[in-house]
Amino acid sequence: MSDNRADRIGLALELAERAGTLSKQYFEGGAMSVQTKHDGTPVTAADREIEQTMRDAVAANFPDDGFVGEEFPDTQGDSGYRWIVDPIDGTKSFVRGVPLYANLIALQEGDEIVFGIINMPSAGIVVRAERGKGCLRNDVPVRVSDRAHLDGSYVMATWLEDWEPDVVEDLRTQGVTVRTWGDAFGYAMVACGFADAVVDYTTQPYDLAPMPVIIEEAGGRFTNLDGRRVFDGGNGIASNGLIHETLRAYVAAPLLGNREELGVQP
Predict the structure, then answer these.
(1) Which of 29, 130, 237, 251 is the least buried, fewest Cβ under 10 Å from its Cβ?
(2) Domain limits at 163?
(3) Do 164 and 128 share a structural domain?
C-alpha cells in the first residue's frame, strides 16, 4: 500500500469510471425509486450504491484517509488526505432523465484540493485536473475563455430562483446572458471556455470540492461570494478570472451589501 498522491489519483480515476458505469445503468434502466431526505432533497439507490462503492475502495486501499460524502456520515482520517465526493451531483436532473448529472470526486491533501474530477457519463464529458498539471476534457487540455467584459458573457446559474430579480435585470442591461442547467455542468463549461462564469448561491462542500483545482488549472478563478478561496463557504462563483470581480459585485450584493461596500465598481 502506497501513501503517495499519484496512487490516490489513480484510484480516483478508477472510481470515477466505476461511478459512471453504475450511474448510467440506473439512468438507462427506467423508473427509479426516489426517497426524500430530511433536507428535502431526493436520493436514489444509485446515489447510495455509488458512494458506498467509493468508500469501500478508499478504505481498502488507504484506510487512514478521511472521507466525506453526501449520503453517509464522514470518516475521519490521520493520513493528511481526505476524499470529498458527490456520487450523483444533480440528482433531480438524474431522476427526470436529464443527462447532465455528474459524479464528483476531490482529493484534499492538507488544506489544499490537489485533484478534482467531474464525470458526466451520459453526456460523455470528463473534466479533471491535478494541481500544477493543467485541466483536461476527455484527455485534451482545455482553458477558460478570454472574455474580459460582462458584455456578451455567458453566466451559468444552478437555481435561478436563488437570484434576486434585480440582479438578473442588472446583468441583462450589461449584456450578460444567464443560462441555467448549472450544477457541475456549469463548472465544466467554464473550465472548457464555453461559458464565462457560473454562480451558485446555495451549496454543500461536496458540491464544490473539485471545482477550485479544475477552474484554477484551466486558468480561471474560484471563490465564494465574499471573495474567499474556499469551497465550503455555502456558495461559489467560478469564472475565467477576467470578469470575476465585476460579476461578483453584482451577484454578491444581495448577500453582502451594495457594490460600493464590496469595493468593486462595475
Answers:
(1) 29
(2) 154-255
(3) no
Distance CA 259, CA 253 (A): 6
Does one domain contain both 33 and 111? Answer: yes
- Annotated binding-site residues for Mg(2+) read 70, 86, 88-89, 207
Region of residue 40 (left: phi > 0; alpha: psi -120 to 50; beta: else) = left
Number of domains in the chain: 2
Q: Is residue 150 packed enough to be buried (19+ CB in 10 Å), middle (13-18) or exposed (0-12)?
A: buried
Measured CA to CA, the distance from residue 74 to residue 172 in angstroms comes to: 42
Average pLDDT over residues 59-73: 94
pLDDT tens sequence across 127-170: 999 999 999 999 999 999 999 999 999 999 988 888 889 999 99
Contact assessment for residue 103 and residue 23, using Cβ atoms and an 8 Å cutoff? yes
For 90-123, write each residue's pLDDT tens digit. 888 888 899 999 999 999 999 999 999 999 999 9
Written as nine digits, the cell of 266 is: 462595475
For the annotated binding site, the residues are 70, 86, 88-89, 207
